[in-house]
Every structure is written in C-alpha cells, then in structure tokens.
From TrEMBL:
The UniProt record lists the keyword Metal-binding: no
Protein's recorded name: GH16 domain-containing protein
Keywords associated with the record: Signal
Segments passing through the bilayer: none
Organism per entry: Paraglaciecola algarum
Endpoints of the signal sequence: 1-20
Amino acid sequence: MKLTKFLLTLSLFSSSLVYAKPPEPELGKRWVINNAYSDEFNGKTLDKRKWLDHHRTWKGRPPAMFDPSTVSVKNGNMQIANKMMEKPNKKYTISGGAVQSIGQTAYHGFYESRFKASRLNMSTTFWLSNRNVPFEGKNHLGQDCERDGWSMELDIVEAVGGVIDKAFGANFRQGMQYNTHVWYSGCEKGSRSRFSKGANVAEGDGTQAFNNKLPDGEEVWQNYNTYAAWWKNENQVDFYLNDGFAGRIQVDTTLLEKPYSRPMSMQLLTETYDWGRPLPTPEQLADDAINTSYYDWVRSYYYVDVDKDAKQQLERVGKADDIFVESATIKNTRLVLNSLEFSYLYESDENVNALIELSKNNQSIFSKKVKLKAGYGHVADQIKLSKAMDFDKTQLTVHLLHTETEKLASSEPVKIKVNVK
C-alpha cells in the first residue's frame, strides 16, 4: 500500500494516467484483482500455484518448440529467452517458450499485461483460449452430429519485433494486433473452420482497429507497453493499448449466437508463424540483446458491485501487491432538499476506511466514516442534513485513512453548488 498522499484533480472526464488500470468503473461497480491470473513476477521462480512452464496440449508451431529451459523469473520480469535447439527434434530447430495458467476459469473481466517483445521474427504474445468440446445441438451452420466440437481463442496481442517480409509486417512491429477466433471441428472427418474478427490481418479479418498504433513510429521491442482486453460478455471485447481505447470486436456469430460463453486459460508465449518469414537466424537467436521477451507483469480483474466481495479462485498469500495508487476523486455533487448527494472514485490495494468530510471556512462541520472494499470503485453516497443550510464556501472532501486519524490520500476538495430539485 502506498503511503504517499496522492491528489487527483477533479474532472468530469477520465484523467490521463501514467500507470495501468482498468477503465473507469460505472457507478456502483468496482474492479478487483483476480489473483489466479495476476502476477508481478517479483520472485525468483514461477509461482507454481498459478503457472506451468509449458503448454498442456501444444508443442509449438514448427520450427519453434516450447522449451521450459527458456523460461525464467528475474529482475522483476518473467523472461523467455529464445534460442537455437542444441539437438534439433525432427521439424523443430528453435526453442521458444510457453507459460500457461494452471487455472482454466478466466471469464468475463479485464486482462492486461505489460511487456517488451524480442527483436526476432518470433511473436511475444498474451492470449486466452480453451479446449475443444462437443457442440450441443444444431449450430448456425445447420450441422448436428456426435463428431462436431468447438473452442474459443482471444488473442489480446501478438507482437513481432523482427522485420517480416510481408506488407502487413509493420503492423505487428508498430502496434497492437488483436483477434477473436471461434474454432469449429465439423461433422466431416478432419474438417476445421475458424471464424475470426479483429485487427490482425494475418489471422483475422483486419477490421475494427481504432487506435492500435504505438506513437511516433515506436516499435514493440523498444519499450514496455501495456496491452489489455475487457472481455465484456458473450459477444463483445474491447481492447486497450497503454490505457487508451484501441478497438472493439463484436465476436463472429457464424457458428452460434453467443460464442464467448465459456471460460478459458491464459497464455504468455513466444512462437514462430508460417507467415512470419524470414525465420530468425542462429546469430540472432544467440544475441542476448535481442532474443528475449520480457513480461513485467500480468493482471486480471473481476467486475463486481462496489460493496460485494469477489469470490477468489486463488487466495493471495500475504499483503496485496502494489497495484493501485491509493486515491479518491469526487465526480459530482447535487443538493436535493436537505440531502447532499455525491459520487466518487477510489483506489486501494486493501480494504480501507474513508472519511467523508464537509468543511466551511476551513472548519469541519460534518464527517462520517465508511468502509470501502479493496479495488477501484465508483461509489454513490449522500449526507442527510437535519435542516437546510447555507452552502456558501462549503467544501466536500473524501479522505482514505491509513489509521484512525492518519490520512493516506485525499480528494481535491469540491465546492458545493446549490442545485435544488
């Protein structure tokens, strides 16, 4: 928990932030960390409660095979150091890496990761997927048999730092390439279809990109960037690049009406692509200055009512990670008869007490304490007055408390404007 007082200037619009967090919650809602799919990577090894150092069902796309020896945790990063295989394995000659979540229950919520890609013609990726399961009943294609099945894939970002010899190569080097896929194994033996939408022109339809380019020609290997997706419901996913809205996908409904209706697992991995040529050379793969993908952190959030607990699938151990900048921001005030109605945003890594204070001429004239649950919330509250009063030179302030009296953070005081209903 950050103990430095942090003031945010009152605004009716979202502030420009220098740290990552989910979009501003709606009134009465709150974002809270989902521990099973979040990691700051500040230890010395992968957290075995959360992660595998390989992929359960996939070796990798030739010529790169997932190799646990490429994965490490050090210097506050999960690192995947791509390399040439010492002993080629048939069609595999390159070692990439895969970190996959133990959990397979990631569902509607916000998912973000901050990373820096390698400078190879290998991807640095962040995505969700699930396994193929039997399709129940008749689908939109009119097929209904015992053989058919389906799965989902949400590619939050696929970044390639190398120079691909395709016209679209710069897209993977200079911005955020995202996709949604619905996979279908049909009734005919061996048939497999993919229904895709997204910014990724190599594996999707190349549509629905909004603001998915890095500024000033910056490339994905040069700096850390934050890539995020708000999986809102069965049909919609919003994407964010460095806290800016990057695009929206209405998931393809060719197969079924509500395709994004099953939980998934999380993947952080590096791979080669059939369309990503030329392949990295042995010299490039041996160059530690360009061969490594650096994941600073991955964070996932539930979206819940502001006063409700989120049922964690994996409880944290010890204190909360330092995610939120403890703060409060008053959004609006309204005087209705003898009640002062107001709303405010707050952030806190831990459950915290808040002091609501009315002051006039720098003297406190009313205060009350409320309990706030950990997270990033948007609260509606009111102060009921025993009688009408003159609000001239009266201010409202929300304080987050570290102790009973010590203030952890305070909103900017807001002058009360009379607006009688």
